[in-house]
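Query structure, 151 tokens:
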């Protein structure tokens, strides 16, 4: 089955890192193997924003260029009105259940990311978010570490 693999900020940050270290090499190989296996990798707009703002602040122009280049390799998942409406529902539901994912006065990127996944026009069983924050994301959408997901 074709998987639709959505990248959270930690794996996307590694892929945008110009450093030649073992972890960057490993995730680059992993992403190529996923594509070769017929899976689709996605850069969610909300995660592009989250990562890009920090790269701009830190003056990491090589990483920004690499992030821009990834958009020609991976699919880009724009924020949509249905995704934002679903994010509001997820945010409210998690707080009603007493399992908030963040400060109630701040925008909750985890619920926006999850809502982007939930509103994709693909089979729900084929969606997974790769993240370093499995506990928060998995409340809403299947999630795992990229190192645990075999192409």
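Result returned for the query:
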């Amino acid at each position: 089955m074709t998987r639709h693999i959505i990248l959270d900020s930690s794996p996307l940050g590694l892929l945008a890192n110009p450093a030649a270290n073992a972890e960057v090499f490993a995730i680059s190989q992993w992403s190529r193997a996923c594509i070769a296996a017929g899976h689709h990798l996605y850069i969610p707009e909300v995660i592009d924003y989250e990562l890009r703002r920090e790269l701009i602040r830190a003056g990491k122009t090589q990483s920004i260029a690499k992030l821009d280049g990834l958009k020609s390799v991976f699919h880009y998942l724009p924020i949509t009105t249905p995704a934002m409406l679903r994010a509001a529902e997820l945010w409210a539901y998690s707080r009603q259940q007493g399992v908030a994912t963040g400060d109630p006065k701040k925008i909750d990127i985890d619920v926006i990311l999850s809502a982007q996944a939930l509103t994709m026009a693909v089979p729900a069983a084929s969606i997974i978010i790769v993240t370093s924050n499995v506990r928060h994301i998995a409340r809403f959408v299947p999630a795992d570490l990229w190192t645990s997901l075999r192409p």
